[in-house]
Amino acid sequence: MKLPPLIYNPPHEPLRILYQDDCLLVLAKPSGLLSVPGRGDDLRDCLEVRARTAFPDALLVHRLDMETSGVFLMALSKDAQRNLGLQFERRKVEKHYIAKVWGHVRGDEGQIDLPLRCDWDHRPRQMVCYEYGRNAVTDWAVLEREPPEGVTPEGVTRMLLKPVTGRSHQLRVHMEALDTGRGGHPILGDVFYAHDGAEAAAARLQLHAEAITVHHPNGGERVTFTDKCPF
Questions:
Q1: What letter would DSSP give residue 121?
Q2: CB count, 10 Å around CB of 150?
Q3: Pairing mode, strands 137-146 and 156-163
Q4: Which DSSP category does 4 fall into?
Q5: pLDDT in tens, 13-47
Q6: Residue 185: closest CA among 125, 197, 4
Q7: Rounded to whole angstroms, how far apart are CA atoms 227 and 120?
Q8: Which of 22, 65, 139, 179 is catalytic?
Q9: Dihedral sign from CA coordinates of 204, 62, 55, 28
Q10: 45 is catalytic
Q11: Of 225, 228, 210, which Cα lies nearest the Cα of 21?
């Protein structure tokens, strides 16, 4: 399997701040922008670098895939970074994603429990592996089923995805593997896991991190930050 070459042409748009206080910086990450620098000067531009240019104390807490858009949380102190890191490690963080997938998903809600590991021969792809994979769990619910038309002859399902774990490419692999007896339900616009029809059905990956809920590092209040889905 030959993977497509990375063509990095990040969007040039102002930093969009969703929320800021003494502990937290919450940004809206656009699709097509790396979360952290890649290897080489041509891949240095990323949300972390842009954020630290405006906020020198900003510290990384988590990442989103380059193609994924949505809520991106950063810390503004070492203590806040440590606190949030523990919340991610202990699965105290709740994340909601919106995705549009190929075909009509059967059922209205469910859970996917498929262990994942890196597909070393085709990095950065991940793969389901029961022998060496790390546990990966995703809760899902159907929000809407769109009728077949044009480039989507099998229709489209709009999904709410809640990752219980946070493995690399977890939602993308789990959607592609969902209901495998009917060929899976890859996310539209996915260059790594979608078949040709599903990849061509959208100009960008139809995956958006719409909401994240954490305990505020200062006081522990449960807070939710949102970025409305653009598709």
A1: G
A2: 6
A3: antiparallel
A4: P
A5: 999 999 999 999 999 999 999 999 998 889 999 99
A6: 197
A7: 34
A8: 65
A9: positive
A10: no
A11: 225
